[in-house]
Amino acid sequence: MEAEFDLIARYFAPLAVGERGAYALLNDAAILDVPAEHSLVTTLDSMVEGVHFLPDDPPDLIARKLLRVNLSDLAAMAARPRGYLLSLALSGDQDETWLEAFATGFGRDQDIYDVVLLGGDTLRTPGPLTLTLTALGEVPRGQALQRGTARAGEDIYLTGRLGEAALGLFVRLGQAAEKLPDLTAGQLDRLEAAYRLPDPPVQLGPLLPGLATACLDVSDGLMGDLGHIANGSGLGAEVEVTRLPLAPEVRRLVEAVPERLQDVVSGGDDYQLLFTAPQEKRDAVERLSGDSGVAISRIGRMTQGDSVRLLDVQGRDVAVAQAGWTHF
Amino acid sequence: MEAEFDLIARYFAPLAVGERGAYALLNDAAILDVPAEHSLVTTLDSMVEGVHFLPDDPPDLIARKLLRVNLSDLAAMAARPRGYLLSLALSGDQDETWLEAFATGFGRDQDIYDVVLLGGDTLRTPGPLTLTLTALGEVPRGQALQRGTARAGEDIYLTGRLGEAALGLFVRLGQAAEKLPDLTAGQLDRLEAAYRLPDPPVQLGPLLPGLATACLDVSDGLMGDLGHIANGSGLGAEVEVTRLPLAPEVRRLVEAVPERLQDVVSGGDDYQLLFTAPQEKRDAVERLSGDSGVAISRIGRMTQGDSVRLLDVQGRDVAVAQAGWTHF
């Protein structure tokens, strides 16, 4: 393995092209100009081998997932992403081929999301490969969305489809036969891909101010994260199982195997946006979905009280086993 | 150990008081308003137990060192620090007492440097305790200092005293009797303290634009870091041993034991500022030193060519064994 400077120059400096303030990663720190009347938005997430990903996961997908989980946090605050810093603690199991693929993954997502690498740190660890990414974005001043600002009677919306990453983890762990009966190989592949590489609606976040009253990204399970909106707002919430956005095979599965419904509503790694909006905005939300190309489902409503409930087709409570899922 | 949310609420949310955009660490991301006509400056550094610090180092000093090495990078670009994000990957060896002391360390330095915790991530690792900190600061637009912009004939300045952390590491490792003969217990304690807790001149950085033409912080050894200024500027550099700022006992040591001079000029962890300035600014630099209370020593000059030389009292070259010191 090359020395740190050579490694940075070869694999990472090309990712910093396009932002003058990254100084080709040669300076101590990076500069970012935030436009007038905008605020900086920043977030940080870490991933550890064996905890958040598996040692034989493809390095390009590890890189892209790390970036995307952070961009998802920016989107939840309505911020447009600008750039990121990376801490890369190598365990010694990563060779040049691994590094090249890892950097290639960042390059692909940089093109998709219009972000650049601004700086970081490369080091050795006697422990597992450990990654930390800090993402930086911008939002017009005063427009950032928060999670504790929903009002009673407002609708609850969820982007994309629910629970596919949680089910995909069963595939990844070789538990498909036991946990996901009757799904085809193609369906299982699709679920595993959803676990390996989330597809957060990064471009939708900046379009939500004016419509959404509260927002977060679902990373630790729908019901737990909805609890954050409800608790922060001093309210309760109701979600209807029949309104959850589920692929047909997932819907059949959760109807046949109740434990899988628990996985779908409490599992992690969805990285979809969960937001509230006043009922009079229903048409506007529908138009936003069409115009953005992001599916947005109305799944329930905010209520008085403090209970966060999941209701079946008859309006009866479905017990939710876990309050939320956590890597911690 | 408590769950992640409780742990954050108890130990870290108090560190986020004072910055509304940190949302008491309850949101997905944090907001920071950069003043008009200013740029954001950001940097990231990681520390791993057993590599960058020792398992029995006091947790408050680990926290403060992690923050200070990042603030040093901001200072080198003339930025004023504003806040930071923290990734805390706990190994399981850290109990509540450890966490409380760790958070207390951040609190102390937050008061000293006028920064707040903006956000972060808390997680578990099967490996060693791993810390990553991202620091955010601000600089008037166009005033950020860079490292590759020195000119031939300019003076080279160094703040503070050199090599004390590198020598202090010998104390920390129990090698004082062998490596640091004839120093008193009090002198050894002072060196060890310099290793454990650097004292970067954070307040000096924002005062350097208009005087300094190139700047960086010495973290990987004076001669190696001076090489970055020289190479980046397409120049050479000369440093005079007799002009190096050394404590009297360190000066006696390096004159008696030539290997210790190598440690002083090539060792890491100084976290002092190294900058260049035109000769006609000598009076202004001297006034800046007096006004800021930071010692600033003129140690050499930038030259034509590409050699970075250390000269003894007779003007002869002193061979420098290592190009620089690295944790990598």
From TrEMBL, chains A, B:
Residues 151-310 form the PurM-like C-terminal domain. Substrate binds at residues 52, 269, 325. Mg(2+) 2 binds at residues 45, 73. Residues 27-139 form the PurM-like N-terminal domain. It comes from the Bacteria. Mg(2+) 4 binds at residues 28, 43, 73. Catalyzes the ATP-dependent phosphorylation of thiamine-monophosphate (TMP) to form thiamine-pyrophosphate (TPP), the active form of vitamin B1. This is Thiamine-monophosphate kinase. The gene is thiL.
